[in-house]
Amino acid sequence: MALPFLPGYSLNRNVGKEKFHKPQHWGFCNNVRMLMNEDKPGIGGELCLRQKRKPKYSAFLKEMGIDAPPWVAFDKQVLSFDAYLEDEVPEKSQENYRIRRYKIYFYLEDDTIQVNEPGVRNSGLPQGTFIRRHHIPLPPPDEDQFYTVYHFNINIDIVFYGWKFKIYDCDTFTKIVLKNMGVKLNAPGQCPEDPYLKMRREKLDFVKPLRPYESFGTLKQFLNYDRKVLRFFCLWDDSTSLFGDRRELILRYFLSDDTIEIREVLPHKSGWNAMPFLLQRGKLPKYGPPGVYQPGEITDRIVLNVYGGLVENRVDGYLLDKYKLGKVHQEFYKDSDLSIGTTINVWGRKVLLCDCDEFTKSYYKTEYGIENFTSIDCKPPPPPKIERKFPPYTGFGSEEDSLRSCIGLMPTPHRKNFRKWMEKDSYGYISNTLRFFAKLITHDCADVDRLFVISYFLSDDTLSVFEPIERNSGLTGGMFLKRIRVKRPGQEVFKSELSEYIKAEELYVGARVNVNGYLFLLLNADEYTLNYMEKHSDKFPMSSIELALQKLKKQESKSEELRNVFIAADDEQRKMVDYNTFRDILMTLTVGELTDHELITIARHYHVPEDAYEDVNVLIALAHERFKRNTFENFERLIANCVYQDRENKKVLPTKDIRRLCKSSRLPLTHDLLVSLLSKFEDSEGQINYESFFCALNWRINPVPELEPRSYLKEVACVQALYMPPCQWGKS
């Protein structure tokens, strides 16, 4: 009887299935058809008959209840067991079996197992990885299952692919993990000794006196201390011997092979032969020189006899002397024998260690705990300085050239102060030249009124004298003295020492200068000279305002009289007097305690600046002179620009707009001159009639007379004399 075709009555197992794919079991390997994988499931991913699904996670992870993946929970956690295996040796009479030791590693992250055999020297067996890491199945009849962590313990036998391993111990981490899992650990056992290895060891011990194995390896010391050198600064006092002296040495101790080399530090112009080494690199014996040894006396090994085969002149081996009878023992210096203050024997020479470098100090502090590194002075006392005497000047050439011919066999030219010349040479608007107006001090009526310009050049301390040319004076004028260095008067001509020359500090207004027999009185100086001397008042005390005022403070008793004299001299009540009146008053009251230069310094400190642009005609004349010099004629264009900016056609513009227009058009006028011109044409509202302003500046249409040059001999200065109380004048 057939059942109705209804849900629940059908026996077809494919009802409700969605996957019907067939996994690939067969493939090609080296062009041969073969079964590639038997573990793949059947149709639709279902397991085949008698097929079990392999566990994907560690059994221990499921019991712990950890949700993290095993490769995260048990990363780098491996159980290590010590085991051994009895390997039979049937074809050898010396041994029947051999004990082989192994390391069994169990990886908790995926329950894989790896077996390694540690290497044994001269075993003759292939050692290393015995079983590679993978899942190892249980022995039959449970070969469909795999080993887990619960199959391991101490003092048990475990079988891997027919090999029976005896686990006798494990490490501490493995014991802790097994205890946490609840596994009761057995007592650890011992691995039996391999009879063959025991026999070989006894045999080697028996033949050791005949064939001793001695190692002379220095590779470890070389790798640890390569390029590490101890450096000591030494002294060898050889002054007691004939033609001997104190020698400074540098000792280097090479830690890589315990060798020493010594170099000599030669002073400048010592006259000694420059040898590269006082002692070449090698081991230094403590008790040297020990004498001359025959070849073969100093060796590392003592050979008793040699033996060979039947062939003539053939040596197969040699016998060594274990007790080294008759060997020459030598003691060499080590790093522990070297320290500051120690005297060492360098082949009969007594060398004192005086100091060492920082690396040597840190090495001894680390290795030997030494903290005291007090150095010993190895420098000899300075020899007495012998004063060198030179012959007097002969009169040929300059004194410097004659002196250079006495210093060496090959005369060399005198070396000038090049740095001073570079710093004080003129460049740009900085001349580094001091100029003074002077006159001759003479009784000759024809030379009394002659005026001169004395120029002192700071770059090389030279001096020149120039006489201005004056028409119809009867004097030629021009260069009076070319640029040379001028000696101070009263010096001997033919002497051994160099002559002294006039310095810049000796020049000031009011000073008398003797130039090759001509006596000059310095009357005045130009503006650059006065500014330079006031800027460097430490070198020019006459230009120091502080020192000048200190001299005035000494006249505190005359302060009331000085105040009344200044009030009487100021008739117009302007609180100003001219320079000549100011000079006469101070010179009369101070009774010559102040020099002319100090008076000029005080006057410049309290002077009232002149308004050089008081008259508008003078300003326009100065502007025309600059326009002519630069051939500037673009005045119509300037007026056109102003008309363009004048939107309301008022014929006036603000002062700032006119100044900006002049600056943008690059008028060849200085800032002060342009400001003064604009102030003269500015009205009360700050406006300027640009047509009248630029027409006045047009030197083609409205020329003005040229200015007369100002005389360089005219002294113009004013000072501001404040009506101060007597106490305040004394402190100013």
Describe the overall structure.
The protein is an alpha+beta fold and 732 residues long. The strands form 7 sheets. The chain has a 6-stranded antiparallel beta sheet, with helices on one face. It has a 6-stranded antiparallel beta sheet with strand order 12-11-10-9-16-15, with helices on one face. It is 24% helix and 21% strand. Helix 11 runs antiparallel to helix 12 and helix 15 packs antiparallel against helix 18.
SSE diagram, text form:
Blueprint: E1 26-28, E2 33-35, H1 59-64, H2 70-73, E3 78-88, E4 97-107, E5 112-117, E6 128-134, E7 156-160, E8 163-170, H3 172-180, H4 195-207, H5 219-225, E9 229-237, E10 246-254, E11 259-265, E12 279-282, E13 303-307, E14 317-320, E15 343-346, E16 349-356, H6 358-367, H7 399-407, H8 418-424, E17 433-440, E18 451-457, E19 462-467, E20 478-484, E21 512-515, E22 518-525, H9 527-535, H10 545-553, H11 559-569, E23 576-578, H12 579-590, H13 596-605, H14 616-630, H15 635-645, E24 652-654, H16 655-664, H17 671-681, E25 687-689, H18 690-697, E26 718-720, H19 726-731
Antiparallel strand pairs: 1-2, 3-4, 3-8, 4-5, 5-6, 7-8, 9-10, 9-16, 10-11, 11-12, 13-14, 15-16, 17-18, 17-22, 18-19, 19-20, 21-22, 23-26, 24-25
